Every structure is written in C-alpha cells, then in structure tokens.
Amino acid sequence: MPKDRSSVRFLLDDDLIELHDVDPTATLLDHLRYRQGRTGTKEGCAEGDCGACTVLVGELDGDAVAWRAVNACILFLPMLDGRALRTVESLSRGGEPHRLQSLMAANGSSQCGFCTPGFVMSLYGRSIGAVGAELPVADVVAGNLCRCTGYGPIIAAGATTEPRSHAEAGALVEALKALQSPQGSRGRFGERLWFAPRTVEELTGILAEHPDARLVAGATDVGLWVTKGLQTLDKLVFLAAVAELDRIEEEAGGLRIGAAVRYADAHAALGRLHPDLGELVRRIGGLQVRNAATLGGNIANGSPIGDGPPALIALGAELTLRSAEGRRTLPLEDYFLAYGKQDRRPGEFVESVWTPRPQPQDLIHISKLSKRFDSDISAVCGAFALTIVDGGVARARVAFGGMAATPRRAPACEAALTGQPFTFDTFERAAAALRDDFAPLSDLRGSAAYRLEVAANLLRRLWRREQGEAVSVLDVGACRG
C-alpha cells in the first residue's frame, strides 16, 4: 500500500482542522468541549441515547453535501476525516441567534436548557434538508430526550420551519473535494493502530496483515465499549470511506445492501421490500443513531437484541463475507453460532446482505416490543414469513430476537404452522410450540415468562390482523387468544 496520510482533516465552519497523533477512540464530543471550547455540545448519556450532543456532519454526495445529525459522544475522531462539521455555535457565528433558537426561546421550548442545543441541531438539520428531513418533526427529534417541557413546545417550534432542499455553496463542495484522497489514512497512537481504507482492496490487505483488528462502521455499539466499558481498543479499521460497501442494489428478485449502508439510507429501500421492515427501521434508535448505524454492523456485531437480523432471517436473507481469499455466502441464520460468536474467519468482513423480495402469496409480519416505544432496545422482536396456498400454510419462517443468545429461528413453531390450515387452532398450537423453541433469560427488559408470553402474542397478533381486527402496536402485551 502507498504511504498513507496519518492525520485527520475536516472542516469546522469552513475552517480546516487537521489533527495529528490522534487517539483513535477519542470522541468528537470531548474534542469539541476540551480542545475547541465549543461547550454548547453537551454530554448527557455518553451512549447515543439522549441527543444532547447532536451535531451535523456533512459529506460529499456528488456535487452536493449530504448533512446528517449524529451523536458526537460516540463518534470517534477518525470518522470525521474528509467531512464537514456544524455545531450549535455555528448557527450564531454572526452574533445573532438563528431563527430556530429564537422560536425555541419565545414559546417556552426550553426550561433547564441542557438538552436545548441538541434539539436545535436536530431541527436545524431538518430545516436544511438533512438526511431524514422528510420525517415528521416528532420522528426527527425522537432521539433527543427532554425531562422538562413535555416536547409539545419543541415540536411546535420545529413545525414552523418546513424542510427544504439544501444546495451547499460551491466553495464548501470544492473544499471538501480537496480533502478527499485516493488512498486511505492510517495512524499510530502509542502502540495502538488505526486504519481508514478507501477501497475494498485496501481493506482486505489491512485485514490480511491485521486479522485481529476491530472493524468500526457507525460505532453505535463500539462507542459504548469505550465510553461505558472503558475499553482500550488496540487496532481499529474504520469502514465509512469504503465506497464499495456503501451501495444499495434493488432488483426484481430482491434487495442487496452493502455492509456500510447506514440504516437511515436503507430505510426507504427496506420499506419498499415490505412496509413492516420500513416501520421496524423507523424504530431502530433515534435518527442520530440511524444516521450512523449500519446494516452490516448490526449483523456483524451478533447482538441477540439487534432488530435487523430477526426480520432478515425470516425473509430468507443471505450474507456475503469477503477476505483476501475471496467471497463466501451463507444463510444469515447460520452466521450466528453462539452468544458473542459468529461465523467470521480471521481477516474476513461482512460485505453485503441479500434479501429476496416477498411474493404475493407471502404473508409478512414484523413486530418490535420495547419498554419505550421510540428510540429503545427491543425486549422481543418477532418476524413471521408465511406462504399461504389454498387456505393453508405451505411454508413458515419464524425468527425472534431477545429470546435466545442469538437471533434465531423457531423450528417447533414453524413445524406447527407448516402444512396446516390457516385457522385459529393452528396459530394456538404454534404459539404453544414456542416454549419448545426458547428458554429466554430474565433481565431488566423483561422476565423469561414475559418474553414467552409476548412472543406468543405477536403470533396471535398476526392472526387477529388477518381477520380484519384493528390491532394496535401498543397492545401486544395484553393480546390474548
């Protein structure tokens, strides 16, 4: 590989910032507060949940700049390389508050004020057409928490500014183009190494040399290992600049999504695959999390409560992995071996996931149950794909998250459905069979008994929905056969 640049370069309010000797897990939040003196960006949770640290990061999109709201508390500095940055101070550089700030102050949108800068940045992103601007105001700020106002005045302030298409001035586009380089960057901080390749070939070469390196896409989980777990990560490979991994291919037969595609960018395509997938993605964290978290990272991480894998498993998704030795493809459910253990060989990385398009005879139902409706981790996520032929269930694929040490299919439940008539009694037998499939743990999100009950009720909910009953997404826990 040619000699790589070792610095991190980005634009802060159009000013070039170049950092040397970068700690690869230093967060943007700490850099802004302690190095730049920009204390408007607050630390509330340090885990990407409260939104008090929301900033806007812009990246080149052809001859334009795509802005997205992200959480600075779990964004590592090398992830800013080649990008532009705006903080709440950026809105009033001329000495006058931005219109949004004035509206927030005038209508009581701020009380203690701690969370206010984060809300302002989320709403400002919406006003300039940032990624996710098409969402309702309440969805845009679902990743921002406030303990004072009740949200009403904040949403009212945001609703006064309609989203618009945002064309950046040519000067910023040209400045960002000047920051792009054909080769990746790499750095050393003491004995620790970091890499930021720009091509798959660079990536495979790095992993062949350093098969033990930690891959980082959005850092929405790895970030917590540092901020909460206080882990020291010795080798990191940042994937955001690898263009080949950031592709979506929609075909008649299905959908292929690259491992580095962020959930916010995959939202529409997944929704076209099936509306339940689109709704599931809408509830994966707040917009700031979806603007960073990737589909490939959600899979590769192997979390038993990751929302994407159960749905994709039920739909029959296949995973493609790649290394210097080539590619291999396997059913997604076979990738998850045990808690914290996946079928990924040394030097191998997730390249893409292929999901076949449901057919007209396929009945799809995907539900997520969490303690808080928006921006929360699942207690149980259930996904059902049934092929209905002549009034009977010809094929069944049922998968759950939160019920076992990995995202997993439910073979006993599937067997109770397959070849049986589409009747209430069939669904009751299938619901009872879930007790043969799972022995879930009890934790702060729910007891084992609770999880078994709601998993069965998710199946009953599918039955009730198909009978034309109005079933609220909020009443799954109370549903009875």
CATH H-level superfamily title of the largest domain? Beta-grasp domain
Low-confidence stretches: 475-481
Helical element count? 17
Please give the number of β-strands.
20
Our count of domains comes out at 3
User: Which CATH architecture of the largest domain?
Assistant: Roll
Proportion of residues in helical segments: 25-40%
Rg measurement, Å: 23 Å
Mean pLDDT: 91
Beta-sheet strand percentage? 15-25%
Shape: globular
The largest pleated sheet is described as: 5 strands, mixed
Physical arrangement of strands within the biggest beta sheet: 2-1-5-3-4
The N- and C-terminal alpha carbons lie at a distance of 62 Å
CATH topology of the largest domain: Ubiquitin-like (UB roll)
**Which structural class best describes the helix and strand composition?**
alpha+beta
For the record, the CATH class of the largest domain is Alpha Beta
Question: Secondary-structure map with pairings?
Answer:
Layout: E1 8-12, E2 15-19, H1 28-35, E3 54-61, E4 64-71, E5 83-86, H2 99-106, H3 116-127, H4 137-140, H5 152-159, H6 170-179, E6 185-189, E7 192-196, H7 200-209, E8 214-216, H8 222-227, E9 235-238, E10 248-251, E11 254-258, H9 263-273, H10 275-282, H11 287-290, H12 295-300, H13 308-314, E12 318-323, E13 326-331, H14 332-335, E14 336-338, E15 341-342, E16 349-356, E17 362-369, E18 380-389, E19 392-401, E20 408-409, H15 411-417, H16 424-437, H17 448-466
Helix pairs in contact: 9-10, 15-16, 16-17
